[in-house]
Write a structure and sequence with these properties.
- By secondary structure, the chain is mainly beta.
- Helix content is 0%, strand content 48%.
- It contains no helices and 11 strands.
- Strands 2, 4, 5, 6, 9, 10 and 11 form a 7-stranded mixed β-sheet that branches. A 4-stranded antiparallel β-sheet has the order 1-3-8-7, with no helix packed on it.
- It is globular, with a radius of gyration of 14 Å.
- The termini are far apart.
- The model has no long low-confidence stretch (mean pLDDT 96).
């Protein structure tokens, strides 16, 4: 079992930055691809970014490309999401998730059901 705990959320003004962290415990996540999702009130959970186990490849949803960066430190069993140039539409609860599969087709990267473990979420609010 893997436990994931997000932190780093908060209230920030438009154009500001936040860095989210996702600390894993229970077992090493170095072989797991990791993802970030977000969910705004009344909306479905939305894919934000994904990073491979080695950290060598990453994917982003179009709306955050160039503004968000996903990274990981496997020595610390932690994944990060650096969010810059924040917009009001980035307001949501942000979740990290772990994909324990040996191989996942790219067309499933953005699907919540692909991920086996989830954190409890951290609120990000961008005020204008």
């Amino acid at each position: 079992q893997v436990q994931l705990v997000e932190s780093g959320g908060g209230l920030v003004q438009v154009g500001g930055s936040l860095r989210l962290s996702c600390a894993a415990s229970g077992r090493t996540i170095s072989n797991y691809a990791m993802g970030w999702f977000r969910q705004a009130p009344g909306k479905e959970r939305e894919f934000v970014a994904r990073i491979s186990g080695s950290g060598g490849s990453s994917d982003y949803t179009d709306s955050v490309k160039g503004r968000f960066t996903i990274s990981r430190d496997n020595a610390k069993n932690t994944v990060y999401l650096q969010m810059n140039s924040l917009k009001p539409e980035d307001t949501a609860v942000y979740y990290c998730a772990a994909d324990s599969s040996m191989y996942t087709s790219g067309r499933y990267y953005s699907k919540p059901l692909t991920y086996d473990y989830w954190g409890q979420g951290t609120q990000v609010t961008v005020s204008s």
